[in-house]
Structures are given as C-alpha cells and as structure tokens.
Specification:
Layout: H1 2-15, H2 23-28, H3 33-46, H4 51-63, H5 67-80, H6 85-97, H7 101-114, H8 119-131, H9 135-148, H10 153-161
Helix pairs in contact: 3-4, 4-5, 4-6, 5-6, 6-7, 6-8, 7-8, 8-9, 9-10
C-alpha cells in the first residue's frame, strides 16, 4: 500500500503545474503586458511596501489601456517612493490616456525635476502639449527628447507629424 501511495504521489507531483515562483521575473519582462500584470501582482502580494512592482504594473496596465488602474498603481508607487521619476512618467501616461493633459504636464514636470534627462517625460510632455494644440511647446519637448536620445523614432515621427525639423 505504501508503494502505491508513493507512486500516486510521484505521479501527482509530475503532472501538477508548480506554483509560480518567478513572479518577480515576470514583473520585469517587457512586451507581454498581461504576464507583467500577473507577475507584479504576485510580487505586490508578497512585498506591498516596495514601489517598483507598482511602477512596472502601472506601465503594463497603461499599455493595456487600463488607465484608471494604471493611475492607481502610479499613485501607490509615489506614496511609497516620492522620488521615483518613472512613477511620475507612468502616471502622466495614464493621465494622457484619460485625456487629462494638464495634470499629465504637471507630472512630466515633477519627473523632470527629479531626473532632467528622462526622455519619456519629454515624450509625454510633447504628446500632452500636442493634444492641447500647443504646437511650439510640443516641438520643443520632442526636440529635448532627441537631444538626449538622438535618433529616437517616436520623437522624430512626432516632429515630422508637426511639420518641424529635428
């Protein structure tokens, strides 16, 4: 009987999917947004006082167009780490998705006060200004992004769309 139980236990262990031990790795992966959300949710469940999984999950949620959730995660990240420039960038992106461009611009400014070389903050700033029909300020923001990262495809496309040279 013991041999039968041991054999059954071995069969169960071989055919059972192991518990997710790699949430942290999934939370850092790029491109597969639902996997990032799941992985970060697992990390947050274990370590709710760390900002980085909220930052990463907010980014993935924004990419999935789940803007309110992205905004909530960026807010939580900033409560945990008010100096996290990327959390301001992510919150700005969520606000842009919600068409709250003036608030997005405030977050871009906050991000740039912390990290004046943050290309994403300049790109978000440019897009927000574009949506507010403030062409000259949008062009300036995209040019600042290009100055920091020459050849950035999105900044170049945006300038072309606005009829401006890099």
């Amino acid at each position: 009987m013991a041999k039968v139980l041991t054999a059954l236990l071995a069969l169960v262990l071989l055919t059972t999917t192991p518990a997710r031990a790699d949430d942290e790795a999934d939370c850092r992966v790029r491109g597969d947004w639902p996997t990032i959300v799941r992985g970060c949710s697992g990390v947050i469940a274990r370590t709710p006082r760390e900002a980085w999984p909220y930052i990463n999950r907010s980014w993935a949620l924004e990419r999935l167009k789940r803007f309110e959730e992205a905004l909530a995660d960026a807010d939580q990240a900033l409560r945990l780490d008010p100096r996290a420039a990327i959390a301001y960038v992510n919150r700005a992106a969520a606000l842009i998705g919600l068409k709250r461009y003036d608030l997005a611009l405030e977050d871009c400014e906050s991000a740039l006060q912390i990290d004046s070389r943050n290309v994403l903050a300049y790109l978000n700033r440019g897009y927000a200004y574009e949506q507010l029909r403030r062409r000259d300020l949008a062009i300036e923001a995209y040019r600042q992004a290009l100055a920091l990262q020459p050849g950035h495809a999105y900044a170049q496309q945006a300038l072309k769309r606005l009829g401006a040279s890099p």
